[in-house]
């Protein structure tokens, strides 16, 4: 597992050259927060990294409930039973619905929102504060996807709102070299709107679950938005 660090942010990457999946340890004054849990096979490596800190894991926040974001959740909860698991209210409600009902309601071919393998401790909504992190609702990849802004560093964590591995693209803009995030997206237009929303926060780093983080975020995000809007317009004309 590859680890890179910037201030209080630690990005852990499983399978960096093949199928990169990032999770993030956020170091608080007296505790740790984990954003997403990656794939099932990454549990041991995540635990190893957590154990290098002399602080307890207090919170696990799920940006959205796809298998590469909740894969290690059961193992991590077993290792850290006092850690509180949090997810957006909308994502949780969607995860309780049968897959065919999810797809019929939203008329989507996006990947289903999966039920959590452990009990959820807290529902979160737009504007909620979790330690140093502020919850920002950023639907598109899934209906209940969230992003998280660290007010100390102005680092922003967006889950699968966009990708940088295999090409730079907003969720729904399928990148041929790494198509899964785009293909599993529920609503391309909503993802574009959410990307425009996060640009207003003027983050210094914007980190995605798949690929390297952006260090000149608004410039790079604006370019992605322009490409996505052009592709969306072409799709509409073709209908």
UniProtKB/TrEMBL annotation:
Entries under CDD domains matching the protein: yflN-like_MBL-fold (cd07721)
Metallo-beta-lactamase domain sequence ranges: 20-210
Alphabetical list of InterPro entries matching this protein: Metallo-B-lactamas, NDM-1-like, RibonucZ/Hydroxyglut_hydro
Pfam families cross-referenced by the UniProt entry: Lactamase_B
Designated name of the protein: Glyoxylase, beta-lactamase superfamily II
